[in-house]
Design brief:
By secondary structure, the chain is α+β, with helices and mostly antiparallel strands. It has 11 helices and 7 strands. A hairpin with an 8-residue loop joins strand 5 and strand 6. Helix 6 packs antiparallel against helix 7 and helix 8 crosses helix 9.
């Protein structure tokens, strides 16, 4: 794995633009430090609030990346990266130095087999058919042999491509690939950490929301248990179904078939009340 010729565009401009949603103008003056502080807060907030790190898509990064065929296939899952151009096995499979292009995990026996096919293809390419029939036969042999070469090039064969992507895509890659089994992904993530402000905007642990207005199921059950204890220990006014027709309540204590039971009503704000002496609210 190798990363070269790195160019970064619109970094400070995108940090400044992160403040647009709360401004009525776009030309206010601020220091880079102030813009970075706001951008850092927005990037971290995106972990639990949503797309507050949208401004990261404006920070563009272009670079040459040498990756194995195996890693290139996995790179395809990231849609917000674009191939500017790349080396090609389709055009140059028989021209590469196979041993130099393969990483250290490729078995030397595989290299020897494919290199043998490349040597034979190059030998056939130097021949010239004596007549039309010989030329057609030679062309057919070369076509079949070239396909054998293409389909036998190992996953550890490395090619270089130039990519253009953005900080937001690199943020996803860093989180998903920094502990990947392929060592080149781990190396690539280490390179991401060297980008400007990467520690603030890209390479940090997921943060959980510190406050929440939502109530959890455990909290609901805890409140219900407390209410039940209050009701159990309170002198209740007993309502007799002999004089008052039974009406199904949202919450009940006791058995509906029992002629004596107490009821508990709940309003929309979850303030629980029971029919008690002096109309006390528990």
């Amino acid at each position: 794995m190798r990363v070269e010729n790195v160019k970064i565009y619109d970094l400070e401009e995108s940090l400044h633009a992160s403040g647009y949603p709360l401004r009525t103008t776009t030309d206010w003056e601020e220091t880079v430090e102030a813009a970075l502080k706001r951008a850092k807060n927005l990037s971290h907030a995106a972990d639990w609030v949503g797309a507050h790190d949208q401004f990261l898509t404006g920070i563009l990064v272009s670079f040459d990346l040498r990756f194995s065929n195996k890693a290139w296939i996995e790179m395809e899952r990231y849609i917000f990266k674009f191939f500017v151009s790349s080396q090609s096995t389709m055009h140059c499979a028989t021209k590469f130095s196979l041993k130099e292009q393969c990483n250290r995990y490729v078995d030397s026996r595989i290299i020897d087999i494919v290199q043998g096919k490349i040597n034979e293809y190059n030998r056939l390419s130097a021949l010239k058919g004596q007549n039309e029939e010989a030329k057609q036969s030679l062309s057919k042999q070369k076509t079949e042999l070239y396909l054998e070469i293409l389909y036998n090039i190992p996953p550890g064969f490395e090619l270089t491509a130039r990519l253009t992507t953005n900080y937001r895509c690199l943020k996803n890659i860093w989180r998903q690939r920094r502990s990947h089994k392929l060592p080149e992904w781990r190396e690539f993530c280490k390179w991401i950490e060297t980008l400007p402000y990467a520690k603030d905007l890209i390479c940090y642990e997921n943060e959980e929301k510190k406050t929440s207005s939502a109530i959890t199921l455990d909290q609901v059950m805890e409140q219900l248990i407390k209410i039940e204890d209050k009701i159990t220990n309170s002198p209740l006014i007993i309502t007799s179904p002999a004089t008052v027709p039974y009406t199904q309540k949202p919450y009940e204590i006791g058995t509906p078939g029992n002629p004596w039971y107490a009821t508990c009503n709940c309003n929309e704000n979850t303030n629980y009340q029971v029919e008690a002496k002096n109309n006390d609210t528990l």
